[in-house]
Amino acid sequence: MNSEICLSCETIERYLGEEEERVHALRGVSLDIEAGSIHAVVGPSGCGKSTLLYVLGLLDLPDAGQVAIELEPVLHLSDDELAYRRNKFIGFIFQFHFLMEDFTAQENVMIPMRKLGQLSDSEMHQRASGLLESVGLGDKVRRLSRHLSGGEQQRVAIARALANDPKVILADEPTGNLDTANSERAFELLQTLVRQDRKALLLATHNPVIAEACDWIHEMRDGRITASHPRRGLGPTRN
Amino acid sequence: MTPPLYIALRFLTHRKRALLLSLSGVVFGVAIFICTQAQTQGFTSYFINSTIGSNGALVVRSRFRPRYEPLMVSAKASKETVGRRAYFEGITNANEIMRVSRQFSDVVSCSPVLRGNVSARAGFENATVELYGIDPALHAQTTDILHQLVEGNFDDFRNNTSSIIIGSRLAETLQASIGDTVQLLAPNGEYWRFTVAAIARAGIGSIDSTRVYSHARIAQALLQHPSGTSIIIYKLRDPNCAPALAEHFEELFQHGATSWQDREESTLQLFLTLRMSVAITVSLIILLAGFGIFNVLTMSVLAKVKEIAILRSMGYRRFDISAIFLWQGALIAAAGSLLGCLLGALMTWGVSHIPIRLRGLLYTNYFLVTWDWRHYVFATLLAILAVFIASYVPARRAAELPPVVTIRGSR
């Protein structure tokens, strides 16, 4: 196993809902994500894939267990500290791209950079343009996001997730809303970017083709990871 | 530019209709507040300036007997209120009082006046008038009489002891003009003839319809008054210190003393009530504008739930989210106040040119307004407060929205 763990969780428990509608969404989930690796979480709807991603992305707090970024436990931190780590270390990609409609493609990519505040205005413009160029949208940087097609919007979302050069990218069914051609293109793009910059990618997906292309596949059922195995021919199964 | 301000600007400018609605509420609220305050204070200031300019900021009048409390009083008497002072008509030592009072730094000048009511006749017209026997030089220093002359010349009055100055409305009543003869009826039944040297307009109906100025010695002879002075009127550096000085003068000179605030108390209370009534009405307009902004921002929060969740997922803190909505409120308040102040000034200017013909309590041909920077500051502060309160609740609500619920709900 790779020692360069950039995101991990241990025995995560998470309940959702209240009283009679209370659901045990995550049951003792543990996971290590190494730099330069691509992990897929697969399983039926409602098995806890998205909940796991939100907990790992510090968007949701578990009822028990621990999350660590670069081996440093973070759940004891304040809401502001968690927001800072989310901004700096994690990039999110959602199924419905979730772009800011009143902003251009370039401005959408710049929003996380503005918050981090490490680059000047011109540097942010330059980096956003570069990222959009790398996802094939170099000619649409100034177009309002609502005027882009679904595939283009998802590519802007990918560029935005990479804006602050995060260590980890969490993608919740990033191709779920795209046709086959756009799905393949978006995933290839993610693969390339993750590999070349040695980032970690954890994606929740229903798409078996995409899952099979990942380094690791984690199967989930009823809030548990029932099996973790590497891509065929890559190595042994984890328990 | 901070990220919340940047995002707030974009949110605002992309919802133009909502922005216009919020902005117009603040603009009109501020403008109407400024304009109405300028009007009501305009009339008040005009009245105050006129009354001080004609009757002085402070008046020393009749001498009173010092009140001595008996050492032993009956149980019944002890419960009664303090007995009234005994006053003696006129001021016998006016020169001494004036000499001493001029030592006070607040006193600019003072003028002795002999006052009495007589009948006036000109042609076939009669009127009861208030005769003011004055020292022309001292009175010109102490009051605004020189500026109040609408016809004739003050020097003609000064150089001719058998001349008078009459109020403008009295001149209309008596149908008298410059050079005409007006007869005043002395207590012994004799008519004294005077030439009208000038006509004065104080701007206050009660003065302009009754006031006649003559030379003090002539008035003393006509009224057959022994002391020669009934009141001393004062011009003060700061008219607002008149009540304190009046109290001091009463103790010092043992003469009654009245400040302009006490003298005109009932009229001033009327103006104050009017101003407060208008201010309350207009504040309600600003409050309504605030309520409009509250609605717009609340709707904006509901419309931007998805964006809020996105921003939170990208590392924006709760504080940043509330700052976005507070900034929107602040931008509306700033732009609305600025435009409101400009519109308020324009409306005030416009109102000051509306012709009205007031000939009652005050004399004016146009709406009276006051240009006071404090109206603008107060209106702006009121708008900022209303908008802040209106923005705070939606901003807090936005900050407390759990992003995961929105993201899950969008699946």
* Percent of residues in beta strands of chain B: 15-25%
Note the overall shape of chain A: globular
The name CATH uses for the topology of the domain at 5-98 and 160-230 in chain A is Rossmann fold
* Total count of strands of chain B: 13
**Biggest sheet of chain B: strands side by side, in what order?**
3-4-9-6-8-7
Rounded to the nearest angstrom, the radius of gyration of chain A is 17 Å
Return the string of H and E elements of chain A: EEEHEEHEHHHEHEHEE
In percent terms, what proportion of residues of chain A is strand?
Answer: 25-35%
Low-confidence stretches of chain A: none
Distance between the termini of chain B: 34 Å
Number of helices of chain B: 17
Radius of gyration of chain B: 32 Å
Main beta-sheet annotation of chain B: 6 strands, mixed, barrel
Helical proportion of chain A? 25-40%
Q: Label the structural class of chain A.
A: alpha/beta
Gross CATH architecture of the domain at 5-98 and 160-230 in chain A = 3-Layer(aba) Sandwich
**CATH class wording of the domain at 5-98 and 160-230 in chain A:** Alpha Beta
Spans where pLDDT lies below 50 across 5 or more residues of chain B? none
Gist?
The complex is a heterodimer of chains A (239) and B (411). With 239 residues, chain A is α/β, with parallel strands linked by helices. Chain A has helices at 49-56, 79-89, 105-116, 121-134, 150-161, 180-196, 208-212, and strands at residues 5-16, 23-34, 38-42, 64-69, 72-73, 90-93, 168-172, 200-204, 216-221, 224-230.
